[in-house]
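Fresh eyes needed here. Kindly weigh in on this sequence plus structure tokens:
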Amino acid sequence: MKVIFVVDSITELNNKINLLRNRFGDNILFVVKANILKLFETYGHRANAIYYNNLTRVIQVLLSKADSEDTVICYASLNFDNNLLNKFISKIGDKSRVVNLMPRYNTYEKVCNSAYNIYVKSLFKVKDSMASPKLQFMPAAFVDELLDTHLGNRLFEINENLCVNISLEDKEINNSMKVKTNLSKFGILALIIALVLTAGLLATIAYWTVNYLVILIFTVLYILDILVWIIFMCKTRFDQRFLK
């Protein structure tokens, strides 16, 4: 079994590496975020690959250089411990199914996930599984399929008979499973447009006669701006989950 360890954090790094070695053996490949490479090397390890904003592509190239085998992808930013790994390994079983780590989402997050998945399904005809990318087991046959298409596809929904999901009650671990969505430059642009529209509306109210047509125009512009903002936020979230 091969382990791809994505080093996107150096918190308790050696402890996490030792946990992985105790459970999966020494066949660990380190994919290190570029801005922490030098710090990573001070721990006495060597990077097998380095990434900037193209993590999925880098892992796919790394996996394609050798024969496909059962593979675990794990991120250093996940707060995993012995209990989580024990549960994870018990679900791997005969290695015939994909094993995902599924975060617990609150009501607000579920609403956002639903809107986000409308965007994803409209583009790809399938939903995001909403599983964490930070810990996943993939059988060799599944790895082969991904290498023939795109490694990011590992996060799309698949037949429930072909995968098993794990959830935990621990809040700290649960929060570390999730991928944070940063505001993109397009999202910032949408916010600027909203401020300009607001300034324009206030100026219209102050200096001109306001009628139903003016209100209708500004209402439509606000709605369009909100829709554009939602679309760009969904795109940003997709890119961060599937590509970066």
User: Anything to note?
Assistant: The first helix runs from residue 13 to 24. The chain has a mean pLDDT of 91. The longest strand covers residues 132-138. The CA atoms of residues 117 and 123 lie 10 Å apart.
